[in-house]
Amino acid sequence: KAIKRETSRDFEDALRLIVKSATRPGRYFAKVLYDLMKGMGTDDSTLIRVVVTTAKQDMQYIKADF
C-alpha cells in the first residue's frame, strides 16, 4: 500500500517486481519461466538467458515452485 501511495505507476510496477523477486525468487522465476513457455511460440532468447544466469541452487527453488 505504501508503494502505491507514494509512487507513479511505472515506478510502482518496478518496485513490486523487485519486492516479488527478492522475497520469493523461486516463485517469481517459476512464473517468468511459465510465461515464457506458455502458448504458441517461446521467447527462446529470454528463456535461455533466465536459465543460464540462474544459480544452480536457485533452480531447486524454482523447480519446487514450478
TrEMBL record:
Name of the molecule in the record: Annexin
- Enumerate the GO terms in the molecular function aspect: calcium ion binding; calcium-dependent phospholipid binding
Which InterPro entries does the entry link to?
A: Annexin_repeat, Annexin_sf
Q: Which SUPFAM superfamilies match?
A: Annexin
**Which keywords label this protein?**
Annexin, Repeat
- Pfam families referenced in this protein's UniProt entry, alphabetically: Annexin (PF00191)
The reply to whether Repeat figures as a keyword in the UniProt entry is yes
The family this protein is said to belong to: Belongs to the annexin family.
Q: Does the keyword Iron apply?
A: no
Q: Which organism is it from?
A: Selaginella moellendorffii (Spikemoss)
